Every structure is written in structure tokens, then in C-alpha cells.
Amino acid sequence: MLAHPSSPKLLFRLLLGITLGSPGGYAATHSVAHSSTYNYTLQQAVQRSQQIDPWILKSQFQQESLQAQSVSRGSLPDPSMSFGVANLPVDSFDFAQERMTQFKVGVTQMLPRGQTLALNRKRFGRLSEVELAAQKNRTATVAVEVSHLWLDIFESQQITRMIESDKHLFQYLIDISESSYAAGDSKARQSDVVRAQLELTRIEDRLLMANRQNDRLLAELNGWLVELDVQNWHETNITEKIPVLKVRDQSLIERQDVARLYGYLDLHPAIVQIDKRIAARATGVSLAKQNYKPQWGINASYGYRNNEPGGMDRPDLFSLNVSVDLPLFTANRQDKKLQSATANFEAVKTERALALRQLTSRFLAAVASYKGLAKRIELYKRRLLLQMTDQAESSLSAYTNDDGEFAEAVRARISQLNARIELMQLEVEFQKTIATLNYFLIAAQPPPVSGRGEVK
Domain span at residue 341? Predict the structure, then answer.
């Protein structure tokens, strides 16, 4: 059939018409076969990465250490004991010779200044709460990073599927253009053959780039999950369906309720972490003030004496002493410690204001991206893809009716493929933006989970 000049164009039109994608984007490419050695949903990947994150494990050990220190620092120091012989005569070393000679046992207990014990217990307890808030913030951060990485892998694999679904078409274009040229078609030119071969080469290059990107991203994901088969990365297929994420508080995005936003951010783990540090530093200021108070010590001793040489009993002796450390010269010690603690306290308060400002600006930037992406996706679905399809069909019709150029028909097809890829990339970026927004809205109620295990 290819010997007839019009037959290749008819076949070309049939093939191109079959592979012209619907305006819906990339759903038609999901039937491409891929072996799957690893198949996590987005939610499963996030949960797995959070469960085995070494940073969280390290923080848990640090929290345990601080809790233990809270108990130890809030306890009295150990008493000290002393043993000795007092007033032993050196001429005879006879323990019974002199009345003053005695064997002494003493116990000394120092009492911390003011409320130092209670404040130390409170300070380290708050530091352990800092670690707890840090773990929650890390968990939320991991969710964002792994979600973005997972969606980037999904994007690279979808690009591979789309290109592979169209690759055979360009091979057919080469065959058709060669057949038309060999059959003496008046419209067929050698440049058409070269152009078709060039486009196939470009398709193959894009496929190689997509595979390289996929391997790099899978290597990064392996750092979070430590489960991928690194020997078969090309065969790794995470999923064929894009997850549909939902914003934790959609009405906040639509109404721009600033008061509710600040309410959420005040409860954000990153801010709570700083709040706990502020509380710990405030306790540190109170601890520094205890240095101005005296430190008391108690010493009790018991002295055993031997009987007199004539056999008469000698009474044993008991002593009790109280010592006090008076902080009279405070300029170079107590004053400077209090000054340092106060400065640290004010510094962390400034850090809170800075962190809150940064979270707010990042949230507003994510909201702007969210709204912009939503509009672009709507434009692509309602108009741009339809127009690309019409252009491809028009160019095809003109070429098959000997009223158009082969190159224009190919360009139209490539443009439509690019538009489908761009739509998919916009939808992936949209889901990534939702994951980012949910990080800032972690204090809001979590969205429901669908039966597929994906966050809706």
C-alpha cells in the first residue's frame, strides 16, 4: 500500500489521529507497561521516611538525656563524710593518754542557693520540650521534602511514559516520509525524511535525560527510605497515578484570614520550639539571680574518746557547724552571669519574631504560587490543550490534502506533546505547593485520608 503516493499520508493521518492526546493531559499514557520492583504511595513513602529518620532518633536520645538531667540537676548534692583522729599526743601516740584525743566522724551537706534545685529541674524539663517540638518540626519538614522528591520522581517517570508513547509515532513518520519520497510523491522531499529522523533523535535524547533525572531522584529517595534496589533503578516505578492532596484549611487560602493564620503559626512546631527555648532562657535568668543569695552548709561530727587510764569513762563529743557563703563582691561574677543570661533571653525572643516573619512570608509566597498554578492548570485544560489539538489536526489535514508542510505537521505534534508534559508538570508543582502549604498549617486539623492511602 505504501507504493501509492497518497497511502502514506493516509496512514500518517490515521496514526497521528490515534495518538493525538485528549485535552485531559496525560491519562492516556498510563497504560505503558513498566516493571515495578518498588511501589510506595506518597503517604507510605512519607511515613516510612519519618519512621527511620536518624535525626529524629538522635533527638529522642537528646530528649531522654535532658529529662534525666532534669532529675539529677534538681537533686541535692551528695553529702561528704570525713574520718580522722584529733589531738593525738606525739610523745607516745597513746589514744587513752589525753582527754582531748578522739576519733572523729563527720558529715557535711551543702545546700544550693535559693531555689536553684527547682529552677534547674524546670530548666532542663523545658529543654527536653524543645527537643520534642524539634522532632515534630522535623517530622513535618521530612513530609515536605519527601513529598517533593516523590512528586519529582513521578514527574520524571510520567515524562518517560509520554515520550515512549509518542516515540513509535516518529518512527512511523520516518517510514512514511521515506515511502512517500521513494514513491515519487510530489510533496515529499528528502528534507522531510531528515526532519523526521532529527525529531526521533531529539525524542531519544529527551528520553535519556528523563531516565537520568529519574535515576538521580531515586538515588536521593533511597537516602530517605534505604529500600530501593539500586541495581534496578530503571525498573523502579513508584506509581502511575498522581496523588490528590488537599489543603488542611482551604477556607484560609480563599479568605486570607490573617488572625487565623497567626493562630496556626503560633502553634507551629518551629515556633513552639523557640517558645520552649524562651522559657528555658527565662529560667536561666532566674537561676542567675539565685547567685546573689547565700549558700548554706551544715556539718555534723561525732568524736569518740577512750576511757581514762584509771578506767573512768570519758563522754563522747558531738559537734554541729553551720557555714554560709556570702556573695558580697558581685561585680565580676554574679552581675556578669545575670547580664549574660538576660542577653541570651532577649536574643531568643528576637529569634522568635524573625522565625514568625519568615514563616508568614513563605506561607504567603506558597499561597501566591498555589493560586497562580490553579489558574494556569485551568487555562491549559480549558483552552490551550484544545487549541494545540486543533492546530495538530489542522496541520495534519492540510498536509494530507497537499496544502501543508510536513514540517508544520510534525511541529504541531511536538507542540501538543510539550503542552501535555507542561500540564503534567503544572499539576505536579500544584501538589508540591499543597504539601508546602500543609507544613505551615500543621496546627490545623489534618485532611481526610482516602481509601488508597493518599492524603486528600
Answer: 6-76+112-292+327-440
